[in-house]
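If you are new to this repository, start here. Below is one unmodified record pulled from the training split, so you can see the exact layout before writing a loader.
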Amino acid sequence: MSQNLEKIEEAISESSLWESFKKFINLHIDFTDKISISILDLLVIATVIFITTIVLRFAFRVITRNLPIEDKSKFSVVFGYFRWLIYLIILLITLHSVGVNVTAVFAASAALLIGIGLALQTLFQDIISGVFILIDQSVHVGDIIEIDGKVGRVEEIKLRTTRAVTIDNKVLVIPNHLYLENSLFNWTQNGTITRESVDVGVAYGSDVQLVKKLLIQAASTHPDILSEPEPTVVFTDFGDSSLNFKIVFTINDSFKAAFPKSDIRFEIDKLFRENNITIPFPQRDIHIIQKPNQNIQFKNNSENSK
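And here is the target side for that same chain:
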């Protein structure tokens, strides 16, 4: 008899615990008059988000299983952009399923959302631009780019910015939206070999054939200049005070093009001096015409001022 009483008491106790648990999970948290979420709803939302995370990771592994390492890293960045969008869609669907008025949520937070949207407008432009960069592959890590007058080697393409290093080892952080607003010059998209040039002017009356020979000699003897294609001299124009030439050559590292171009200029100046080729500077003849009446008037004005 006593054992039966104990079993009845345990059943009553367990029943009371279950009822207390049910009351707890059904407890509602009122954010506004129209928005109320229970503890059970929060548990459901957390469970759905957890399951979504597992599914997304599994989908990423399946999709990128056979991709090359370079393409896998690019897809990883793009996938990261859209993962948060998927989370947002799943969250809204879950809230609607558990009975939360999603329209009321948007209405209650309309002013906040507008403020956030205005503040994050540039951020969204950067993110969308980053997606475009990875999709059309206009820029890769290692490329040498010129944008808005700045030149750098791309080290990393991130969610919002592209990080590049300039020739003087300074880090250049480029917001991705600048790719849509400015012209982008990719120096190495067709390869690391590029054509460079050095301009020089010589005095009228100089032996142009000798000038051509010396310019080719200055470029051909530099160790960083490729022999194929051969350096070429272009007679560009008859200037106001000089005959203008351009020596065109090919190098294998355009990122450091300033150094061989400087060396070639030094060599050109040396060869021109040795062969009596003059590099002119702009000259102007000024003719001063004095009229006696104007001088007298000027003197009179000076005397009056005294």
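Two things worth knowing about this chain: The CA atoms of residues 18 and 24 lie 10 Å apart. The first helix runs from residue 2 to 25.
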